[in-house]
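Task: sequence design from structure.
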C-alpha cells in the first residue's frame, strides 16, 4: 500500500498548516493579522514589529503563503498580506477536530 493512501486529505492539510505554524515568528504573524481589524497589513508594518531581518521575515511570510494561510497583494512597492479567510477557517476546524 502506498504511504499517501494511508492519510486523508484533511490529515494532509492539517499537517501542512501545522508545519506553517511551527515557528514562533509565524504564530506571531498570524496573531498580529487576526488582531488587526481588517486582518491585513503591509510587510513593512511587520518588519517594524519584529526584530528580524527583512529577508527572514520574507521567508516566514512565504511559508505562511505557501500553506495558504495568508495571501499577498502587490501594490508596488508594497506587499499587503491578509489572512486567507477560507483556509484559516479550515485550519481552525481541523485543529479543533484534532483536540476533541
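Answer:
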Amino acid at each position: 500500500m502506498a504511504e499517501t493512501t494511508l492519510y486523508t486529505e484533511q490529515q494532509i492539510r492539517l499537517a501542512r498548516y501545522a508545519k506553517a505554524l511551527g515557528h514562533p515568528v509565524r504564530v506571531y504573524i498570524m496573531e498580529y493579522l487576526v488582531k488587526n481589524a481588517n486582518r491585513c497589513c503591509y510587510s513593512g508594518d511587520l518588519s517594524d514589529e519584529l526584530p528580524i531581518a527583512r529577508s527572514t521575515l520574507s521567508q516566514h511570510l512565504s511559508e505562511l503563503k505557501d500553506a495558504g494561510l495568508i495571501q499577498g497583494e502587490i501594490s508596488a512597492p508594497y506587499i499587503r498580506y491578509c489572512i486567507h479567510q477560507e483556509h484559516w477557517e479550515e485550519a481552525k476546524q481541523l485543529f479543533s477536530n484534532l483536540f476533541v
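The mean pLDDT is 93.
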